[in-house]
Amino acid sequence: MRKKRKVLIWTKETDASEILNKESKDLNFIRTSYKAELLALAAGKEISLILVEINPPEIKSGIKTVRDLRHIAPDVSIVVFSNQLLPIIINAISSLDIHDYLVTPLNPNEIKRIINELEKGKKGKENLALLYNLSEKLQQLSIENEIIKVLNTTFELNSILDIIIEKAIELVNVEASSILLFNKNRDKLIFNAAYGKKSDMIRGSSIKLGQGIAGWVAKEGKPVIVNDVVGDKRFFNGIDKLTEFKTRSILCTPIMAEKRIHGVIELINKKKGEFSGDDLEKIMTLSSLAGFALNKANLIKTERKRMEEITLLFELGTYLSGMLNLEELLQRSVQLIRRSFGFYYIGIALIIPEEGVLELKSFDSEEKIHPKRRKVAIDQGLMGWVVRHGVPLRIDDVKKDKRYLKGIESVYSEMVIPLKRKDTILGVMDIGSKKYNAFNNADQILTEQIARFLSISIENAMLYKKVGRLAIVDDLTQLFNARYCHITLDKLRKEKQETFSIIFLDLDFFKLVNDRFGHQIGGKLLKEVGKKVKIVVGRSGTTIRYGGDEYVIILPGVKKDGVLQTARNILHLINKTAFLNEDDINYHITASLGI
C-alpha cells in the first residue's frame, strides 16, 4: 500500500485538516497554527508540500513566516493561499520562490495536481505569473473604478488630482510623482499636485512650456519614457537643485480632453527596475481620467461663472432700474459694472444730437487714469463707428486699428458696446484692458446683456428728466415757467441769500398782435422776445416766462446798480429789434418793467 504524502498546512481554521483529509485518500494534511510548531515540522522529513495561509490584516507576519520556512526548508515547495486574490501578496511573494498562489476554499484535487507537478519536475511559477498579471489588471480596474466614483461624487479638482496621483503611485511604485497643468496664458506649467520628498517645495511652482521633459510632453502632446535622464538633452535639473532630489528616470504622459492638452502626469524614479510599456499604458489611462476631470471641472467652473454673472446681472438690473437721476445712474453704473466684473476701465458716453458728438458722461478705472477727451465726433474713433453701425466692436490690439483715437496709454485692447432702445442709439459703453486679446465671445455676450439692462435704465432716467423738465419749463418759449419761479425764490429764501434782484417785465399792447396777426404769430413773438431777454441775462440769472406776455428775471447776488444796468440793456435790445422777420412782418414792440 502506497504511503500517504504529507502536506503541512498553516491556518487558523481549526477544522481545515479534518475536512481536507475526509476528501482525500492519498494526502495526509497536518494542520498547525503555531509558528514554532510549523517551523519544527517543516524541518522534518517526508513533507511533500507546505500550505501557508496569508490574509489581511496579518500580511506582513505571513510573509515573514514564508521567509523563515524558505530558510529552514529550502527544498520543500510552498503554496500560499488566502480568501481573496490580493496584488499586495503576489508582489511580496514573487521573490520568495513560491510554487503557486491559491484562493480558498482549498480543493484536495488542486493539491494533488500541484504535487504531481512537483514529482514531474514542473514548476508552478508560470501560473503565479499569470495570477500576477491578472491581479495587476484587477488592481488597475479597481483603481480606475475608484477614481470614476470620485469623479461622480466631487467637484473639487484639486482633490481629484491628489487621488489620481496617489493611485498612480499604487500602480507604478515610484519615488515621486506630480501633475502639472497649464496656466491661463498656456506658456507655463504649474505643479498642481505632487507626491514624494520635498513635494511641498514644488507644489505651486512652475516651469516654462517646452522646458524639461514634462515641458516637452506638454508642448508635443506625446508620452515618453526616459530611463536615464543623464543622457537626455531635454532633462531640466532646476527642480532637482531646488529640492536636492536626484532624478534618475522619468515617465511622462500628456493630459488631454477633447483634443486639447491640459497638462501632464509625471512619474519619477521607479523603485524596482525600469519604466516599461505596461507602466506607460497604466498611466495613460489615468491621464485620460485626469483629462475628463479637468474637462468636467472647466464645465462646472464655466457654468458656475455663468450663474454668478446671471445673478449679478439681475441684481445690477434691479438696482439700476430704481435710479431715476441720470447723472447718478451713469456714475453708479460704471462703478458697479467695473468692480463686479473686474474690467480695467469702463466709460459711458451719450449722444448729443444737436452737437453731433458723443460726450463721456461717466468713467471708472482700476487705477487713477483719466481719458484725454470728453467729446468725440460721431464720425470718429471706435465709439463713433459703433454709433454709426449700431453693432458691438471688439479690438484685440487697438494700436493696429486705424479707427482708434489715441487715448489712455496703458490700454491695449478695447470693447465698445452700443446702448440702444429698439432702433434708437442712446450712446456707447466703452471697456478697456491693459492686455492684448483681453476679451472673448463670452465677455462680449456678457457686456451686451449689461448694455441691454443699462439702456432701459438710461431711457427711463432720460424720460424722467424730460418729464421733470416739462414741469418747470414753458412749452412755448422753452424758458422756465411760473412754477420754477416760485421754486427758485423759495430756494433763495431757504439759503438765506443776502442779495438778489427781480425784474418784472411785460410787453406793451401785446393783445394787438394777437388781434391783428393771430395767436400763432403772437406765440412766435413771445419766443423771440424771450430769447433776447435771455441773451442779456446770460448765466448771471434765470429768465422766466411767468404767464401771458409777462416775464420775470431773477438775479442772485446782483445789487441795485447791477440790476438797473441789466434792465436798461433788456429794454434797449427789445426797442431796437425788429421781430417776426421770418414772417416778413418786422414788428417793433416796447416793454415795461419793474425792479
Description:
The chain is of the alpha+beta class and 595 residues long. 45% of the residues lie in helices and 23% in strands. The chain has four domains: 5-132, Response regulator (Rossmann fold), CATH 3.40.50.2300; 154-300, Beta-Lactamase (2-Layer Sandwich); 322-461, Beta-Lactamase; 482-594, 2-Layer Sandwich (Alpha-Beta Plaits), CATH 3.30.70.270. It has helices at residues 16-23, 35-43, 59-72, 87-93, 108-119, 125-153, 157-171, 199-202, 212-220, 238-243, 277-321, 326-341, 381-389, 441-470, 482-494, 510-517, 519-537, 560-576; strands at 5-10, 27-32, 47-53, 77-82, 100-103, 174-182, 188-195, 206-208, 224-226, 250-257, 260-270, 345-352, 357-365, 375-377, 393-395, 413-421, 424-433, 500-507, 542-547, 550-556, 591-594. The strands form four sheets. It has a six-stranded antiparallel beta sheet, sandwiched between helices. Strands 14-13-12-17-16-15 form a six-stranded antiparallel beta sheet, with helices on both faces. Strands 2-1-3-4-5 form a five-stranded parallel beta sheet, with helices on both faces. α2 (35-43) packs parallel to α3, α11 packs antiparallel against α12 (326-341) and α11 packs parallel to α14 (441-470). The mean pLDDT is 83.
Secondary-structure blueprint of this entry?
Elements: E1 5-10, H1 16-23, E2 27-32, H2 35-43, E3 47-53, H3 59-72, E4 77-82, H4 87-93, E5 100-103, H5 108-119, H6 125-153, H7 157-171, E6 174-182, E7 188-195, H8 199-202, E8 206-208, H9 212-220, E9 224-226, H10 238-243, E10 250-257, E11 260-270, H11 277-321, H12 326-341, E12 345-352, E13 357-365, E14 375-377, H13 381-389, E15 393-395, E16 413-421, E17 424-433, H14 441-470, H15 482-494, E18 500-507, H16 510-517, H17 519-537, E19 542-547, E20 550-556, H18 560-576, E21 591-594
Parallel strand pairs: 1-2, 1-3, 3-4, 4-5
Antiparallel strand pairs: 6-7, 6-11, 7-8, 9-10, 10-11, 12-13, 12-17, 13-14, 15-16, 16-17, 18-20, 18-21, 19-20
Helix pairs in contact: 2-3, 6-7, 6-11, 7-11, 11-12, 11-14, 12-14, 16-17, 17-18
